[in-house]
Predict the 3D structure of the following.
Amino acid sequence: ASRLVAERLHRTISGQPISTSAGDLPVTVSVGLASPVSLDAQLEPLLNRADEALYVAKRSGRNQVATA
């Protein structure tokens, strides 16, 4: 479910350039997703995995969703 939300957010943001006085400015978004390993998982490792996934998305060409 979170992947679908992230993909929809990505499509919405990426498809809407911002108008400026210099012309339209394209917008991109890279998203990193992570799910807790267990119900009692700590927040910091979860955020670290999401951050790692974000950098995977950026290294893979940006403007995409990556999952840890």
User: Anything to note?
Assistant: The longest strand covers residues 18-20.
